[in-house]
Specification:
By secondary structure, the chain is of the alpha/beta class. The protein has 10 helices and 14 strands. It is 36% helix and 29% strand.
């Protein structure tokens, strides 16, 4: 399968800080790939590199057959970008923002009206097309950001933390929109720090920590490989949990502490009584990064 994005050995430094450190990443055409990691893992820097807002110090980036940064203009022409920070023009209406985008992406005059209509329809903003942006809810503004990225019918969409700060109901609405794009064959690279978002939307997930990819695979593959597919959740006072941690470590069992409980991951044999459950992607995330999801 051809790759919409190919990243090989990419490094990006800011002074003494290495934001991206030897990253390898591939996004096959027509697939949704998730970058999962805590704040500071290098997800947004990776997005900036792919849009040539930042230039890599080392490594190779190819987007839709165009090598970056030399051919970034060609890649941007067939790519849609939904930034983490809202940069809509609040003095304009929904439709006016899309008209501006259609000019910037050089949509042909004969196709412009149809392109805007399609973007409005996909984002379900038809009844708000004449509403100024500063009168829209947070969820509607996010939908407009996605609509703006779709106005030129791109082959690839970059979504940088697309649902950050939104309530669960609005997040579900945006998930449905992203699902629709994937079903239409659009390639998607999405950064997120929401576990359920990665599990729900992504064909494959790359977990990042400190600028590097520490694991890659489908959610099911990652769970089986790193968490053994099952967990035993044991509750108790701190002293008891510490004792269980020591006992588990002595037996070579992996554990994850969560508040008033500890999860013993993988085959746990004669482990203490507790509540058995399937292991999940959050278990994997904590094991590999040492950080809880925000």
């Amino acid at each position: 399968m051809a790759a919409a994005i190919s990243i090989r050995g990419v490094v990006k430094r800011y002074g003494d800080i290495t934001a991206v450190d030897g990253l390898d990443l591939e996004v096959p055409e027509g697939r949704c790939i998730g970058l999962l990691g805590p704040n500071g893992a290098g997800k947004s820097t990776t997005m900036r590199l792919l849009t040539a807002q930042s230039i890599a110090d080392e490594g190779e980036l190819v987007v839709l057959g165009s090598r970056l940064p030399e051919e970034s203009k060609a890649s941007r022409a067939v790519m849609g970008v939904v930034p983490q920070l809202d940069n809509l023009d609040t003095t304009l209406t929904v439709e006016q923002n899309l008209i501006v985008a259609s000019f910037l992406y050089r949509v042909a005059r004969t196709d412009r009206k149809e392109a805007i209509e399609r973007a409005v329809r996909v984002a379900r903003l038809g009844d708000r097309r004449d509403t100024k942006v500063d009168e829209l809810s947070g969820g509607m503004r996010r939908r407009l950001l996605i609509a703006r990225a779709l106005v030129h019918q791109p082959r690839l969409i970059l979504l940088d933390e697309p649902t950050v700060g939104l309530d669960p109901q609005v997040r579900q609405e945006l998930w449905a929109l992203i699902d629709l794009l994937r079903s239409e064959g659009v390639s998607i690279l999405m950064s997120t720090h929401y576990i359920e978002e990665a599990e729900r939307l992504c064909d494959r997930v790359t977990i990042m920590s400190h600028g590097s990819a520490v694991a890659e695979g489908t959610p099911a593959e990652l769970i089986a490989e790193h968490a053994g597919g099952e967990a035993l959740e044991v509750y108790g006072p701190p002293a008891r949990l510490e004792e269980i941690e020591r006992e588990s470590a002595s037996k070579g069992l992996r554990t994850r502490r969560t508040g008033t409980s500890i999860a013993i991951l993988g085959p746990n044999g004669d482990a203490p009584d507790g509540e058995r459950r399937p292991a999940n992607l959050e278990d994997v995330f904590v094991l590999l990064t040492g950080e809880e999801i925000a």
